[in-house]
Design a protein that fits this description.
alpha+beta; Isoleucyl-tRNA Synthetase, domain 2; Isoleucyl-tRNA Synthetase, Domain 1; 6-stranded mixed β-sheet; 20% strand; globular; binds ligand ANZ
Length: 936
């Protein structure tokens, strides 16, 4: 029977949609299972075959769990705010909402064609006002919260105000920007503005002057993970350091919990390592060094045990102390150096370890342990945002300090033995001991560290401390296409909008560029001011700073909406809460999350942070959002090249290049003939005007292109569109093939040629159910052999899916179907369960045969066939028979025979008699189902 995949797939996709087959109920007795994909940004280019890889894997898993009787939540949505639609708006004037809508329509069409079992009714879009209303609401909750280090969680700002009213700052243990000290009287006597200013110092969403990565070409601030090699990741524009007043999120308050939480997660180790490194916990001490002119320099060190070797100090050029420490003579040099530093990004500063540079301030500090005067320098290798922005330099034991000392001719004193390589960390070994100071002599690293910290505390010049590299996350973007921040300004202080005013909708603007005054694009909006008295958004012209106030003009970063979407899927249409507690309780954690490893230190940290915050404030129960996570590998493209002979419009076929001087040029893979490497030269000529009169040097009448594996990308012309594959081989073919390519986590090249293999398998599977053109399945009882094939497969697929080894399942399907075909098996008791086993991978064809088998309901909720191990038990064992341990021959014996019976049979066996000759048996060794060994 002809396997008409197009007709079958269309039919079932319509059936699923009409019958809402995958709509998930919230009230069932079934146990829950939450399978989530990292939702896509709907780009203009549409999907290529690399995108669905993870989605196919998660879909198989979701379907498998339904067969196992779980209530599965498997949603989809769009991360639909972002730069590309806005850049397009700047170039063309098309509203980003329009571009986004078009792109989503296209994505949805493509996704539906692949037959995913998404509950489409739960779709969310981060750019929908009904969604970002709740992103804004979470922002407001963060604004009205502070981090209490004693209770180790976020609390309402009200508890902080109460503390101030009762005790001022006394006994307060908070995560804050700056350490403040005031009494309850002082608090009570402060003006409203002063109080607001103080509270901003503690809020989890706060404003502070920060050095940011400013990208003038994009007109916005970028996060560190949005920058690659000093350029913006999108567009490759230069990025500069600039000080700006910015919204920030106090993620640093959660550093320790983010670190500890990792231990509870089933995530790939490299991903955990990346987060651990990013958070960057170091234990050491903060020490104050006095200077000659009365200033105090506070430093952070992880190696207080080396303090006897601190022969100079280095400050970050931005350190505010620099002004007071710089002497008149050194001022020009220092100012010039500061100016140079401002041009470098922090990344460049950290990366450039070879070229040390710096300037002397002219001042000296006093080493509190050696009591020697040590010079104070500034250098860009010390960063302002880390520790205290100052270091004690120990050139004998720190590589960067060593280079600096060499360049500026400074003293180098070795204070630790076996730490000679000036390698940080090289010195953790037990036998390293302190030298050169009576105080620490002979002590090892740990003891020296504790002793010196105790002494530092004793002297009252510092204390032991833990530092985290992770900084607070900058939250403002000077862009249009993002969530408006629900804040207005009164007397220069930020106030949140009331919840009743949410969503604060993105206003219309005429231009998507910054205003002439350098305000973000929202500054162009005509209606974007807050009327406090009437509690509504009004025309910007009405701002009088008495009752009508300006609204915040920056928008939220891309990561805001994606930091909580997994919660919205649990209750996507609720207008009263972001998600009802009973539903977040029921769905709990995401049980399986599949997505790319590029989100390691962005999305996956931010969403853990917001999740922990929502838990702290009692809105949800679970501490961690994503219990198990898998990073799918990349599907690589097979780029094709033509070879243009330099200075001509002549192209030489790959194997004839020889002496020609040529340039390899990417050609679109769709210009190749079928699945071969041969170029369709006519199609090539009409591809671009430049190639219209191209000439070719052919081999055997053909132009053979060069092929190379590269990242799949539109710019390399090697993308394969899943729509084309679905048309030709079916969605089932695409699904099976993507899994068949190799282990999920690995990167692997796409090779269209391999598709015919899985397509052949689907046809074979289909034909098991047909006799010629007639559907034909017999009710005859299957043989043991047939059952064995089925149950071997059930066992294998169960194991494979639970271990995310989808590729090996596909090979097992092929083996099973081949064997059944050989046996001409068409028995219902085999073919019916077989369809269920294969259906998570190839749902359309399985629905069709399931239906032909006379079942009316969808195959989706059919219990996964249970394994009957008895079919797998071997009836006969092919025993190797050894004499004195040497294998001589094999013999088939019934599997259930015991030692005595086997020995009896063996003693009468002609071969055994021959090998024995006249010798007698000293020992008869029998290991059931394994070996027979006769000792003579
Ligand atoms: C003395 C010392 C001796 C240091 C030694 C290291 C080795 P991690 O592990 O990353 O926390 N440091 C402190 N603040 C800095 C800043 N703002 N910019 C650049 N470097 C800074 O690194 C902590 C170490 O990095 C600190 O310990 C300090 O140098 C330096 F043999 O102090 B150390």
């Amino acid at each position: 029977m002809f396997y008409d995949h197009q007709q079958i797939e269309k039919k079932w996709q319509k059936y699923w949609e009409d019958n809402k087959t995958y709509k998930t109920s919230d009230s069932t007795d079934k146990p829950k299972f939450y399978v989530l994909d990292m939702f896509p940004y709907p780009s203009g280019a549409g999907l290529h075959v690399g995108h669905p890889l993870g989605y196919i894997a998660s879909d198989i898993y979701a379907r498998f769990k339904r067969h196992q009787g779980f209530n599965v939540l498997h949603p989809v949505g769009y991360d639909s705010f972002g730069l590309p639609a806005e850049q397009y708006a700047i170039q063309t004037g098309t509203h980003p909402a329009i571009t986004t809508e078009q792109n989503i329509t296209r994505y949805e069409e493509q996704l539906r064609k692949i037959g995913f079992s998404f509950d489409w009714s739960r779709e969310v879009r981060t750019s929908d006002a009904s969604y970002y209303k709740w992103t804004q609401w979470i922002f407001i909750q963060l604004f009205h919260s502070w981090y209490n280090k004693d209770s180790d969680k976020a609390e309402s700002i009200e508890t902080l105000i109460k503390h101030f009213e009762e005790k001022g700052t006394e006994g307060l243990n908070a995560n804050q920007n700056e350490e403040l000290n005031f009494t309850s009287e002082e608090w009570k006597n402060s003006s409203e503005i002063k109080k607001e200013e103080i509270l901003l110092n503690y809020r989890l969403a706060f404003r502070a002057e920060t050095t940011v990565n400013w990208c003038p070409a994009l007109g916005t601030v970028l996060a560190n993970d949005e920058i690659k090699d000093g350029k913006s990741e999108r567009g490759g524009y230069p990025v500069f350091q600039k000080k700006m007043m910015q919204w920030s999120m106090r993620i640093s308050a959660y550093s320790e919990r983010l670190l500890q939480g990792l231990k509870t997660l089933d995530w790939p180790q490299p991903l955990k390592d990346a987060q651990e490194y990013w958070i960057g916990k170091s234990q050491g001490a903060q020490v104050r060094f006095a200077t000659e002119n009365g200033e105090t320099i506070e430093i952070f060190t992880t190696r207080p045990d080396t303090i006897f070797g601190a022969t100079f100090m280095v400050l970050a050029p931005e350190n505010p102390l620099v002004q007071n420490l710089t002497t008149q003579e050194q001022k020009t040099e220092v100012d010039q150096y500061i100016e140079e530093t401002s041009k470098k990004t922090e990344r460049d500063r950290m990366a450039d370890v070879k070229n040390v540079s710096g300037a002397f301030t002219g001042s000296y500090a006093i080493n509190p342990f050696t009591c020697k005067n040590i010079p104070v320098y500034i250098s860009d290798y010390v960063l302002m945002g880390y520790g205290t922005g100052a270091v004690m330099a120990v050139p004998a034991h720190d590589e960067r300090d060593h280079r600096f000392a060499k360049k500026f001719n400074l003293e180098i004193i070795k204070v630790v033995e076996s730490d000679v390589d000036v390698q940080e960390e090289a010195y953790d070994s037990k036998d390293s001991v302190c030298v050169n100071s009576d105080f620490l002599n002979g002590l090892n690293y740990k003891d020296a560290k504790s002793k010196i910290i105790a002494e530092i505390e004793n002297k009252g010049i510092g204390h032991g401390t833990t530092n985290y590299r992770q900084r607070d996350a900058i939250f403002s973007r000077q862009r249009y296409w993002g969530e408006p921040v629900p804040i207005y300004y009164k007397d220069g202080m930020p106030y949140t909008l009331p919840n009743s005013a949410l969503p604060l909708e993105l206003p219309e603007v005429e231009k998507y560029l910054p205003t002439e005054d350098g305000d973000p694009p929202l500054g162009n909006a005509k209606t974007f001011a807050w009327d406090e008295a009437n509690q509504k958004v009004v025309d910007t012209d009405l701002i009088d700073d008495k009752t009508v106030f300006p609204l915040e003009l920056s928008t939220m970063p891309g990561w805001a909406g994606s930091s909580w979407y997994f919660l919205r899927y649990m209750d996507p249409n609720d207008d009263a809460v972001f998600a009802k507690k009973e539903l977040t309780d029921y769905w709990g954690q995401v049980d399986l999350y599949i997505g790319g490893s590029e989100h390691a230190t962005g999305h996956l940290l931010y969403s853990r942070f917001w999740n922990m915050f929502l838990k702290d404030r009692g809105y949800i129960e679970q501490n961690e959002p994503f219990q198990k996570l898998i990073n799918q590998g990349m599907i690589l493209g097979m780029s094709a090249f033509v070879y243009r002979i330099d200075g001509t419009n002549q192209y030489v076929s790959k194997n004839l290049i020889g002496e020609y001087k040529t340039q390899a040029i990417h050609v679109d893979v769709s210009l190749l003939k079928g699945t071969t490497d041969e170029l369709d030269t006519e199609a090539f000529k009409s591809w671009r005007p430049d190639y219209a009169d191209a000439e070719f040097i052919l081999e055997d009448g053909k132009y053979i292109t060069g092929r190379e594996v590269e990242k799949m990308s539109k710019s390399k012309y090697n993308v394969v569109n899943p729509d084309d594959i679905c048309n030709e081989y079916g969605a089932d073919g695409l699904r099976l093939y993507e899994m068949f390519l190799g282990p999920l986590e690995q990167s692997k090249p796409w090779n269209t040629q391999g598709l015919s293999g899985v397509y052949g398998f689907l046809k074979k599977f289909w034909n098991l159910y047909f006799d010629g053109d007639n559907f034909s399945v017999s009710d005859e009882e299957p043989t043991k052999e047939e059952y064995k094939i089925l149950h071997t497969l059930i066992k294998k697929v169960n194991f494979d899916i639970e271990n995310f080894s989808f590729n090996t399942s596909v090979s097992s399907f092929m083996i099973a179907v081949n064997e059944l075909q050989k046996l001409k098996c068409n028995k219902r008791n085999i073919l019916q369960p077989l369809a269920v086993v294969i259906s998570p991978y190839a749902p359309h064809i399985c629905e069709e045969v399931w239906n032909l088998l006379g079942n009316n309901a969808s195959i989706e909720f059919e219990p996964f066939p249970t394994l009957d191990e008895s079919y797998l038990i071997e009836d006969e064992i092919d025993y190797p028979v050894s004499f004195n341990g040497k294998m001589k021959f094999k013999i088939k014996l019934a599997a259930d025979l015991g030692k005595e019976e086997v020995e009896k049979i063996m003693m009468e066996n002609e071969d055994v008699k021959r090998f024995l000759g006249d010798k007698s048996v000293k020992n008869f060794i029998f290991v059931p189902k394994k070996i027979i060994n006769i000792v003579i």
